[in-house]
Amino acid sequence: MTEVRIERDPNTEVMPDYDSELMRTLLQDRLKDGETLDQVIQGLKDSWTAEHQERLQQWTAQQVAGGENAEEQRRREEEEQRRLEGQRQREEDEERPPAPPKKPKLKGLAANKPVATVSTPRPSSYALNKLKAFEYVELYYFTPEGCKEASRADRTTSNEAFTPTRLDDQLVLQPLAAHKPSAKVVPDANLTWTQVSLAKTVLIKHMQEAGWPEEHLTALSTLYYELDSHAMRQREHGESAVVQYQATVRRQWHDELKAPGDEEVFDIGLINDTKLERFYTEILQEMQLASNNSS
Q1: pTM (global) more than 0.85
Q2: Do 138 and 30 share a domain, yes or no?
Q3: Which stretches does DSSP call E strand in 194-275?
Q4: In which domain, by residue range, is 140 found?
Q5: Are residues 44 and 141 in the same domain?
């Protein structure tokens, strides 16, 4: 049996006044044997209250179901709207003619400007691509040895394989070497301080050309300036500790720069002397252990 839908809010209903003089008079004439007027009135009140409670529950259920149906209808309408918009966008994309390929730009020529006497060392394409992507790359690529290796590799790229790469929203072919790390790369921690000192100048110059923010370049330059003049370098084996320090903090700095979230990264130019001393202590301990083992 289908339940009759309630059209009026039962919360607005008021119980009849069964205790009024008129109601009591009408009920008095309808009393059965053994019934009292108060019993009949109380029965009517109880019956009305029970029925009223049922109507309240049914009304609440109707309201909830109505809300759910409305929400489902709204969701379906939104999905249909998105589908129609997506279909319209696809149709417009199919009708739109393809954009003409971008032409490469060339700088103008300066009359009577000679070539520089000293050529800037050029790292490998792999290292430069890393910098353009604001990613970490080993210092080795910017050492004289790394730049010489890149120069030798550039002379042989004409015979190497190419790989498709997306550049400025276009798919272009680039030498595979541009995306392949060197097999001869030396970890930062294994470089000499002389190699680090030479490489950092080339590194920072190419970071600037790759569009790194000025504040990042200043912080990194400050790191190497402070380490270069640090008293730790005057100690025996102190330069090894300085090399270890810069290798660790620069890698950590890059990791935090690319980490998700909006938290600001530490100032790499501020030397943590406690951390530097810890590296120095570890180096001395390793040397002492090596000496004991050889004995």
Answers
A1: no
A2: no
A3: none
A4: 128-146+184-287
A5: no
